[in-house]
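Write out the 3D structure for:
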Amino acid sequence: MGYGDDLMITAFAAEEKKRHPNKQVIIGSLELKQAFHSIVYDNNPNITDCRKLDNSQNIHFIDYHTRNRPYIDYKKSIKGKYVWNTNSKPLPGELYFTQNELDQAENILNEAKENWNQNNKKKYKGSIFLETSSTKINDSHWSVKHINKSWGEKNWKNLIKAINKSYLIIHSTHENSNKFPGVYSPQNVDFRLGCAIMSKCDAYVGPEGGFGHVAGALKKKE
């Protein structure tokens, strides 16, 4: 599963923690008898790090994995074709940042503002966290899915040209990302730091995926 899937289960985990406040809530596969850790769960008070369980306390196990997702109707799905469960209504997930992550994000935002001031005379209307392509675009397993989600470089160029004189854009990039002139692209930004940066922006623009779920969790305009 991706970070978006990991994020979706955090809202459910919060509800389960309320029901079982004295238990360690963990997430994984009951069939495999295996718990999973995700960086999305870091610092989350409702999810116990499965690598650091206290054997003296009871455990509440959430069965959530690649073969058990509530938004898929497995009875109607066939190999290679999922059917969505339209009755599944996920709640926005939850992210908990460290102060260091927030400080790093603030520094990057300030650098972006400084870059704006050096190249523009007027004040920007708002700040946008932009993602134009997934890190999985060239993945051997996920590439077709994310190529289908791609909006196309020309469309991104046209959009950026239309808004980059009015909005401060922080572009989340990876080694295979297209670079766009006039857009601030911080280096060495991992997923959690990207999320922290988005938390300080006004809106998110990008394809459906992990950062889209982050925007929902952070209550950002999309």
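The chain has a mean pLDDT of 89.
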